[in-house]
Design the sequence.
């Protein structure tokens, strides 16, 4: 099929035009810094890590030089799954915690729901971090046929326990044949989690009919710390010969990246074996920037995870397909892409909303922040930019606001403030909720490192962007702020697992399995 004919077909509905609807492999790395891969700023900045598989795919695909996400795990994943900015979801400040009712609003339609309605098998392997109090908070209650991994922000790579020593390694499923099920994964203690994920991926692919389109979401555990923030880990076998010092932070980071590449290579090899790879679109990104430590590097960008400087919210990202008809444009693009954009893009890519609306009677909300990026992918023009602005966030806890418009980025408030939401405090969702006295304006097109504050030189730009922030004030939702103290919640001393405690009829928790775990 010619590219021009394909374009004419694809804009109304890609799924109808291709003889075999494309599979989707969505890879979300955890805390990967801008300088923790080789394909960002090639030849322009010193690299001390090797990521040959990731770099090779990126360089043969479409590198997104200006890909933006959120400053933390939960807000980023929420945007990806809902197509909305965190401030419209009540996730302006902190992460979802255990022993709380925190959960994405059940009224939101998550990405896998319309994709599944379009005939796709939907599976997830890795980190969720979007709530687990009820079945309807879990991935399998929100459109995934199956999920395997953990619910919280971080677990140990070998014991699969949280920092409080609670077990957080589960499976769930929602299928016509097997119904709704959720259980812990027994017998995994002492096994490296990245290898367990690879084993589960192979199981999914072995059980999958290649004729059915597949949506495989891999929010991988790497390169997040293992349990505690300062604890990074990979088995000795993953350390490179040229960097085998287990006490050296960047050697450890290299080993963790080697493990990630091994998992990706296993996945891609299986796709190829099943004849699926030439009909697959792969998306790769990180949920936020790297931490401010000696393991990660966000250079040359300023800032780190928890902040809304470039180093905290601008991450490595690329698209790849071996099929030119699926991904027509190659090279690098400076167009803005936000993590929320994949919501509209992938729903349209898989067939749109008609099947989901027909089966449920529901329609997508009109206030989506997601922008459909299909035209950027298929026209073959690197400058077919769809997005000109990003409302990064308004945080009433830290009293900050950040907005990007074309070349400029405006920041209000103390970006170094790491205050956390407290349930016994009132946070205003109006102009008094931001510290307007601290102003920073950067031209991030020419100054990605945010070294020169232009606020005093461009007061008209500051005023223009400030007025847009005020408009977004009204879009905020109340904070989903809770302390981990919900009565009778899990985990506890009797049921020491991060799994739901509120089950509706028709859902089968494996209580017997819970009780058997040491």
Sequence:
């Amino acid at each position: 099929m010619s590219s021009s004919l394909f374009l004419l077909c694809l804009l109304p509905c890609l799924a109808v035009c291709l003889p075999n609807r494309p599979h989707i492999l969505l890879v979300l790395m955890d805390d990967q810094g801008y300088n923790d891969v080789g394909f960002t700023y090639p030849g322009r900045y010193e690299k001390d890590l090797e990521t040959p598989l990731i770099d090779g795919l990126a360089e043969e695909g479409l590198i997104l030089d200006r890909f933006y996400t959120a400053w933390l795990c939960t807000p980023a994943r929420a945007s990806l799954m809902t197509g909305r900015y965190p401030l419209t979801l009540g996730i302006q400040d902190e992460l979802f915690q255990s022993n709380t009712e925190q959960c994405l609003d059940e009224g939101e339609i998550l990405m896998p729901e319309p994709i599944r309605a379009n005939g796709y098998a939907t599976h997830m392997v890795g980190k969720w971090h979007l709530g687990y109090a009820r079945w309807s908070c879990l991935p399998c209650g929100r459109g995934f046929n199956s999920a395997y991994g953990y619910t919280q922000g971080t677990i140990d790579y070998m014991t699969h326990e949280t920092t409080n020593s609670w077990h957080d390694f589960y499976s769930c499923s929602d299928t016509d044949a097997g119904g709704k099920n959720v259980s812990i994964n027994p017998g995994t203690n002492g096994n490296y989690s990245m290898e367990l994920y690879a084993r589960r991926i192979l199981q999914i692919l072995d059980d999958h009919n290649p004729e059915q389109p597949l949506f495989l979401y891999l929010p991988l555990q790497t390169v997040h710390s293992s349990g505690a923030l300062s604890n990074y880990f990979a088995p000795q076998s993953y350390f490179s010969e040229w960097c085998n010092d287990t006490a050296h932070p960047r050697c450890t980071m290299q080993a963790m990246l080697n493990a990630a590449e091994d998992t990706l290579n296993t996945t891609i090899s299986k796709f190829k074996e099943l004849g699926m790879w030439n009909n697959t679109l792969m998306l790769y990104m990180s949920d936020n920037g790297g931490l401010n430590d000696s393991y990660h590097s966000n250079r040359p960008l300023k800032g780190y995870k928890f902040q809304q400087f470039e180093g905290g919210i601008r991450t490595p990202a690329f698209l790849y397909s071996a099929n030119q008809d699926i991904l027509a444009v190659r090279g690098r693009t400076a167009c803005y892409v936000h993590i929320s954009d994949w919501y509209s893009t992938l729903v349209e890519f898989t067939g749109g909303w008609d099947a989901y609306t027909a089966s449920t009677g529901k329609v997508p909300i009109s206030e989506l922040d997601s922008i459909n990026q299909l035209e950027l992918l298929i026209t073959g023009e690197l400058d077919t930019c769809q997005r000109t602005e990003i409302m990064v966030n308004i945080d009433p806890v830290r009293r900050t606001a950040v907005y990007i418009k074309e070349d400029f980025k405006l920041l209000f408030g103390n970006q170094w403030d790491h205050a956390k939401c407290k349930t016994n405090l009132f946070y205003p969702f109006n102009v008094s909720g931001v510290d307007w006295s601290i102003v920073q304006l950067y031209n991030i097109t020419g100054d990605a490192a945010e070294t020169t504050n232009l606020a005093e030189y461009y007061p008209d730009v500051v005023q223009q962007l400030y007025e847009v922030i005020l408009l977004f004030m009204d879009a905020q939702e109340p904070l989903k702020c809770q302390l981990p103290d919900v009565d009778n919640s899990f985990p506890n001393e009797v049921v020491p697992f991060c799994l739901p405690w509120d089950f509706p009829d028709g859902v089968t928790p494996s209580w017997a399995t819970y009780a058997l775990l040491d």
Q: What stands out?
A: The longest strand covers residues 331-338. The first helix runs from residue 3 to 17.
